Amino acid sequence: MATSIFQFRQKDRRPWLRVILQLRGSVVPTIAPRVLLCGTFAAIISWLHALKVPVAQPGWANLIPSVVLGLLLVFRTNTAYERFWEGRKLWGGIVNTSRNLGRQIWVAIDEPTPEVREQKISALNLIAAFGIATKQHLRGASVTEAVADLVEPNVLDNLRTTDHAPLDLSVRIAAFLEEQRDRGNLNPYQLASMHRLLDVLVDSLGGCERILRTPMPFAYAIHLRQLLLIYCLILPFELVSKVGWWTGLLVAIISFTLFGIEEIGEEIENPFGTDPNDLPLDAICNTVRQNMQNLTTLNPREANARALVDNSFQ
């Protein structure tokens, strides 16, 4: 049974203490070496200070104003989250548009022969395949294996050679709509409405590609990391005269905070991957697939008649 995106959200409801101690999904394993480096260096400085070596330099931490560093971190995190949220909105659009397009295909297209019904089922499978192909395309993964059970063998062969599988699938959906119009199973107004929905799907695909192919400027990331490291390494010289042997622990806590914020921004910058903090694209695609399968269990004539009755009371 397909995993629902609503079921996915239920995973966030965990005991508070258990969340604190959880490593999966946190940035602790990634930043631990950096924190250990800064804490160890600070411990060495406190040891030298205990030996009366003149290492205490009050005021050094002000070489990099904390306000400036904080603003840089906030900008980095906010920019990364904007990309994450924009990706989620685009995928929400893919889900809703897929449902609307599938519903219109299933209800609006006449079925003069059983063959047309089978073609409609194939078209709904192409819609589900479009979402999966988009996910795989964004991840740089194989498309053909993921959609092998949804498309015809000849379509699968073409997907193996195409450079852009989601676009290829959208063209096939458009060709199906045009064919049904030519056969008289679809009027021009319905065709135009379905083409608009198909355009929205392709626009959402393009929006995801824009996020993927426009990363944060690398020079900005380099400069921020350099400032973070310099700040954490000069901090012990500022604190050692005030806290003594606690310098190592205090610097480790501060560096854990700063490096963690920077790493979170780095991790959510590309929301289409497979990390725990990325968008649940597998669950989203499974939801679209299940929706398309559910549509095929409905009688389109009954659904159309029910819609007409409902409209008569509006």
Which runs of at least 5 residues are low in confidence (pLDDT < 50)? Answer: 305-314
**What string gives the helices and strands in order?**
HHHHHHHHHHHH
The share of residues in extended strands comes to: under 5%
Radius of gyration: 28 Å
Task: Describe the protein in words.
- By secondary structure, the protein is mainly alpha-helical.
- The protein is built from 12 helices and no strands.
- It has helices at residues 5-10, 16-21, 28-50, 66-108, 114-139, 153-161, 165-182, 188-213, 218-243, 247-268, 281-296, 300-312.
- Helix 5 (114-139) runs antiparallel to helix 11 (281-296).
Task: Tell me briefly what this model is.
This protein has helices spanning 5-10, 16-21, 28-50, 66-108, 114-139, 153-161, 165-182, 188-213, 218-243, 247-268, 281-296, 300-312.
What is the element layout, followed by pairings?
Blueprint: H1 5-10, H2 16-21, H3 28-50, H4 66-108, H5 114-139, H6 153-161, H7 165-182, H8 188-213, H9 218-243, H10 247-268, H11 281-296, H12 300-312
Helix pairs in contact: 3-9, 3-10, 4-5, 4-8, 4-10, 4-11, 5-7, 5-11, 7-8, 9-10
